[in-house]
């Protein structure tokens, strides 16, 4: 089914990165208003939409801090009364793409050349990886032999003929001898399962000299005025695809709790759908009675150019 959209009668809400280059912003304005000729547009950060969604549900709260961990990177952004606190924004150059690429390198070195199979290995990562609550203990288990190794999983790769999508074997069907039939394409995964997501918490493990997510969260909150800090600690919101790793929320809470002052309450919220959470915020924003005050109309743009966008869009 095709749905025809008349851009001239359509408003658009479009997300962009934090501290985006002005040249890219100007190009985006030109595409939206000159090429597609939308009736009006709002350029905004994904974190701002997430905070709008959170404050809508928790209208008694004054502050929140959004952890947006996606494909390319992770951003930590504090908000107060819906306003972005730029002095507290922190960026970590670890995202889902880096994790998938690292898993490809590990598997290619240990088992099977998969450097050209980004889509398949990304699926492997999503199906079997998890965030460890005790890294050293899990490493000890991963070194055990046979059925004592409760970390080990066998992943059946797709052949795109009889097997369209890869899957993780049930534990009772696993082959602990390590001998497989000719033609079977099976990955045996042990410490990769938790060592790959660990990069979100310790980027220095692979030579990236940056803070992990919990440390960056605390650093960001410490950059805020002291009287606001308790409000941020009890309103930590996790968004983005990386938050779907089992154990992610618990690990963030555990490490932030250890780093935060003992007198502060710490609460970490993982929404039901952390990937679509900003979209939900955008939907609420579009239904807001003040929405027309936030956007730039095509007439405004044609009259004032890029200047009016710079003035209205706080990105």
TrEMBL record:
Pfam families: Actin
UniProt main location, coarse: cytoplasm
Superkingdom of source: Eukaryota
The keyword Ribonucleoprotein is annotated on this UniProt entry: no
Segment forming the signal sequence: none
InterPro entries for the chain: Actin, ATPase_NBD
Organism: Sinocyclocheilus grahami (Dianchi golden-line fish)
One GO CC term on file: cytoplasm
Keywords per UniProt: Cytoplasm
PANTHER family referenced in this protein's UniProt entry, alphabetically: ACTIN (PTHR11937)
Location of this chain's protein in the cell: Cytoplasm
Protein name: Actin-related protein 6-like
Family designation: Belongs to the actin family. ARP6 subfamily.
Upper lineage: Eukaryota, Metazoa, Chordata, Craniata, Vertebrata
């Amino acid at each position: 089914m095709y749905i025809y959209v008349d851009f001239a009668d359509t408003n658009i809400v479009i997300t962009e990165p934090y501290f985006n280059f002005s040249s890219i912003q100007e190009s985006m304005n030109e595409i939206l208003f000159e090429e597609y000729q939308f009736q009006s547009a709002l350029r905004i950060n994904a974190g701002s939409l997430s905070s709008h969604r959170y404050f809508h549900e928790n209208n008694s709260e004054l502050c929140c801090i959004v952890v947006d961990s996606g494909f390319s990177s992770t951003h930590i952004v504090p908000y107060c009364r819906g306003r972005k606190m730029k002095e507290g924004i922190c960026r970590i150059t670890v995202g889902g793409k880096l994790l998938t690429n690292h898993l490809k390198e590990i598997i290619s070195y240990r088992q099977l050349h998969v450097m050209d199979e980004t889509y398949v290995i990304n699926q492997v990562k999503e199906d079997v990886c998890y965030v460890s609550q005790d890294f050293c203990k899990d490493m000890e288990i991963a070194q055990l032999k046979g059925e004592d190794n409760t970390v080990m999983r066998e992943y059946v790769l797709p052949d795109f003929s009889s097997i369209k999508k890869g899957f993780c074997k049930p534990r009772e069907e696993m082959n602990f001898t390590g001998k497989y039939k000719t033609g079977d394409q099976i990955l045996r995964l042990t410490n990769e399962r938790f060592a790959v997501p660990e990069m979100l918490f310790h980027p220095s493990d692979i030579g990236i000299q940056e803070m992990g997510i919990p440390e960056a969260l605390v650093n960001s909150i410490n950059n805020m005025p002291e009287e606001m800090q308790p409000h941020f600690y009890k309103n930590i919101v996790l968004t983005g695809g990386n938050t779907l790793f089992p154990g992610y929320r618990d690990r963030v809470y555990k490490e932030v709790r250890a780093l935060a002052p003992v007198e502060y309450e710490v609460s970490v919220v993982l929404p039901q759908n952390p990937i679509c959470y900003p979209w939900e915020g955008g939907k609420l924003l579009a239904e807001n009675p003040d929405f027309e005050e936030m956007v730039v109309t095509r007439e405004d743009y044609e009259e004032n150019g890029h200047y009016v966008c710079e003035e209205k869009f706080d990105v």
